[in-house]
Design a protein that fits this description.
Blueprint (H helix, E strand, L loop, with lengths): L19 E13 L4 E7 L2 E7 L6 H5 L6 E10 L14 E12 L15 H6 L1 H4 L3 H23 L3 E2 L17 E3 L7 E3 L5 H9 L4 E10 L10 E11 L3 H19 L3 E2 L5 E4 H8 L13 E2 L1 H5 L4 H8 L3 E7 L7 H13 L6 E6 L2 E3 L8 H11 L6 E7 L1 H18 L7 E2 L1 E5 L4 E4 L4 E4 L10 H7 L9 E6 L2 E8 L4 H10 L4 H7 L1 H7 L6 E6 L1 H8 L30 H6 L25
Parallel strand pairs: 3-5, 6-9, 11-18, 12-19
Antiparallel strand pairs: 1-2, 1-4, 2-3, 4-5, 7-8, 9-10, 10-24, 13-14, 14-17, 15-16, 15-17, 19-22, 20-21, 22-23, 23-24
Helix pairs in contact: 4-6, 5-16, 13-14
This protein binds one RNA strand of 77 nucleotides through strand 1, strand 2, strand 3 and helix 2.
Length: 604
RNA sequence: GGGGGCGUAGCUCAAUUGGUUAGAGUCCCAGAUUGUCGAUCUGGUUGUUGCGGGUUCGAGUCCCGUCGCUCCCGCCA
């Protein structure tokens, strides 16, 4: 007989009754009847009830075993009598009658209950190895593994091969903050962890590999959010040669539709996913990652208000403000407090105000109705599709502010009115992103996305158009209001790239210096290529219907980018620092600002 | 860097308007208990109310500061 187990804790059924079996696992629950002891034994696969009879020599020892200790039990598998069957357990028709019992590892009392959902998160993170024993989290990590496996399989089936790329590479000036790794051999020089394998995957295309994918670790030193883990995250990194945008879309639609259909119970939008130009998304949804489950679409009504009697809007429009309508069906019967609170909320997120009109009882009511002529009201009614009982809210401000605030209000209305379509994943592509945007802070034109994207119209557009009107072959895939991934048709022409960077204020030698490999490679025969990188963590998060990304990562860092279990980051020895030619220059600590800075030591 | 929320026993929570010695469940410890499956019953231990200061006759409660966690903004080509 095997030393630890003949079966797992999840597989025994009535058919094996009478057999001699051995199980190993954790003591999940104990029910001590004094002259009879039940132990629910748990492993990765399930739960099996062990019975210890009072005449066994190890009975008292078994009574004293603490929860979560690891034991090995040998005995005869017995069918339970009908009245003692537990229909809630897959193994509920049998139990293991212990003939011998070995404690492999006695557990200390736990810092929190494994059954308890509400343990404080810092405690869960510090004892993540315990937290991971909890069924829900355990299942999510298993699901993550299954999702990744399925993705690899689907990509292989579509003709892709997985290639690895370096983790220690060089820092590049664009994008997020880099994680840096000092070089011992080259004093004063640093490696950077890749923010993504962007340049490597493009180089693989230049090397002729044609169809690349990788479940790639990406490292960005940026602050966390609920859906953004600090430190590292994983992407399904994809790159293809000799393709057009639609080829990328088709591959991604196959993967995403496949994964979401296989692993989720919700319905999934059929491919091809809806395509929405960036400008249209910003107007209709106030966002470049619209939640299409909410049946509210904004409408531009600037022209109707341009010459109206509502002076507040008219004056603002003269100062280049726009007016957007948020039409909402069937809420005229809401109490006054509903509207007051919404106005208050709008102001709290930066709105100057929130006007609205109510179509009720055959007339138009609301704070601004008296300023508008019948023809203007009629125009608003038809433009916004208003009927009896409907309400339209108006927001007037500069376009950026209007988009941000109406986009926020749309999400809030959808949630508060319970109008988010349940049980479905609504996918879309956002396409035609602008190539550049104007950076108000530095008063200059900058890339709005990936600088390696191909501008629509190529060199001609770069030479002749106002940069802010140039679109890029740049696209995002979005699901239920969450950006799952971003990609682009790459710019494989050095001449176009130099021009594109020049517009964003980069001298040619600066471009050469920052991207030497890629630019150089482009001069030796570069295939047109394109790619994308959907986020794995976010995918799994959505499949589990979790709002926090830490819930789908086995060993996540906390919001301040600390691993509380491993105590990372931590101090290193002076010897290590000396080898790296590094001397610390620490800021004064906050607790004791008056004490002089400690000797730059870093012991540990 | 900025804003919001939270912080009471190992864990989950309670504590009237600022008013007695801060309670309950769970865990843990001891005992009882032969069919439970969140077993049950009896008894017991467990507190710098995050920390520091202030107001007050009196602070878990009010005020100020600070620390920690978290959500958001900035940031995330």
């Amino acid at each position: 007989m095997h030393g630890y187990r003949t079966h797992t804790c999840g597989e025994l059924r009535g058919e094996q009754a009478g057999q001699e079996v051995r199980l190993s696992g954790w003591v999940f629950r104990k029910r001590d009847h004094g002259s009879l002891l039940f132990i629910d034994l748990r492993d990765h696969y399930g739960l099996t009830q062990v019975v210890v009879q009072p005449d066994r020599s190890f009975f008292e020892h078994a009574q004293s075993i603490r929860l979560e200790s690891v034991i090995t039990v040998t005995g005869r598998l017995a069918a339970r009598s009908p009245e003692t069957v537990n229909p809630d357990m897959p193994t509920g028709t049998v139990e293991l009658v212990a003939e011998s019992l070995e404690v492999d590892s006695m557990a200390d009392p736990l810092p929190f209950h494994l059954s308890d959902e509400d343990a404080p998160e810092d405690l869960r993170l510090r004892y993540r190895f315990l937290d991971l024993r909890r069924q829900e989290l355990h299942d999510r990590i298993v699901l993550r593994s299954d999702v990744i496996h399925h993705i690899r399989q689907t990509m292989r089936e579509q003709g892709f091969k997985e290639y690895q790329t370096p983790i220690l590479t060089s820092s590049s000036p664009e994008g997020a903050r880099d994680y840096l790794v000092p070089s011992r051999v080259h004093p004063g020089k640093f490696y950077a962890l890749p923010q993504s394998p962007q340049q490597f995957k493009q180089l693989l295309m230049l090397s002729g590999f044609d169809r690349y994918f990788q479940i790639a670790a990406c490292f960005r030193d940026e602050d966390a959010r609920a859906d953004r883990s600090p430190g590292e995250h994983y992407q399904l990194d994809v790159e293809m040669s000799f393709v057009e945008q639609d080829d990328i879309f088709k591959v991604v639609e196959t993967v995403l539709h496949g994964v979401f259909s296989k692993f989720a119970t919700w319905k999934v939008d059929a491919a091809p996913f809806r395509r929405i130009p960036y400008r249209e998304a910003m107007l209709k949804y106030g966002s470049d990652k619209p939640d299409l489950r909410i049946p509210i679409e904004m409408v531009d009504v600037t022209d109707i208000f341009r010459n109206s009697g509502f002076n507040a809007f008219r004056a603002a429009i003269e100062q280049k403000a726009v007016v957007r309508a948020i039409p909402v069906k069937a809420i005229a019967d809401r109490p006054r407090s509903f509207f007051d609170k919404l106005v208050e909320y709008a102001q709290s997120i930066g709105a100057k105000g929130l006007a609205y009109l109510v179509w009720e009882g055959g007339v138009v009511k609301g704070p601004i109705a008296k300023f508008l002529k019948p023809a203007e009201l009629e125009a608003l009614r038809t433009t916004c599709g208003m009927g009896e009982g409907d309400v339209v809210f108006f927001m007037c401000d500069k376009e950026g502010a209007v988009n941000r605030i109406t986009g926020d209000l749309r999400l809030k209305l959808g949630r508060d009115l319970d109008r988010v379509e349940p049980g479905i994943y609504r996918f879309c592509w956002i396409v035609d992103f602008p190539m550049y945007e104007f950076d108000e802070e530095n008063k200059q034109v900058m890339f709005s996305h990936n600088p390696f994207s191909m501008p629509q119209g190529g060199l001609k557009a770069l030479s002749e158009q106002d940069p802010l009107t140039i679109l890029a072959y740049q696209y995002d895939v979005v699901c239920n209001g969450i950006e799952l991934g971003s990609g682009a048709i790459r710019n494989h022409r050095p001449d176009i790239m130099m021009k594109a960077f020049a517009i964003a204020g980069y001298e040619p030698d600066a471009v050469e210096r920052n991207f030497p490999a890629l630019l150089n490679a482009f001069r030796y025969g570069a295939p047109p290529h394109a790619g994308i990188a959907p986020g794995i963590d976010r995918m799994v998060m959505m499949l589990c219907d979790q709002s926090n990304i830490r819930e789908v990562i086995a060993f996540p860092m906390n919001q301040r980018a600390q691993d509380l279990m491993m105590n990372a980051p931590n101090e290193v020895s002076i010897k290590q620092l000396r080898e790296l030619h590094i001397r610390l220059n620490l800021p004064p600590t906050k607790e004791a600002p008056k004490t002089p800075p400690a000797e730059p030591s870093g012991k540990g």
